[in-house]
Amino acid sequence: MAKQDYKTLELPAKYVPKKSEEYMCLEQRAYFYQILMAQKQEITDGNSGVLNTVRGADSNDNGGGGDDADNASQEQALTMNLRMTERDNNLLKKIDAALERLENGTFGFSVISGEEIGISRMLARPLATMTVEEQEEYESRK
Predict the structure, then answer these.
(1) 55-75: pLDDT as tens digits
(2) Which CATH number describes the domain made up of 26-59+68-141?
């Protein structure tokens, strides 16, 4: 029988990682993989909508048609969409980095100390790269 991979493992519908399980066992890695992939898909689906909005704004730009208020509103909406796209692109980079950590076996462990981040923190913030204590120290230095 072939060894199961976290990318193809089918989890029970109501599965949630538990502290009583071995930390970052196959099931937990599969759980986080599915969450990260769903987040990535949601963002990429949303980005295509923003790109269509930008393209639509370009094609509707008929040399200043509409009054100043309409033009200002349209420009403000476009600027907001572009900012959201930039934020989403940064989030995509973090998701890709988390997927890479899953692949190399370092997901769920601090990038600073190598300690377990903890299942509770990973459930609350799957993109976490530091323990709570390390994160607090990092933020206090900023």
Answers:
(1) 555 555 545 556 887 777 778
(2) 1.20.120.910
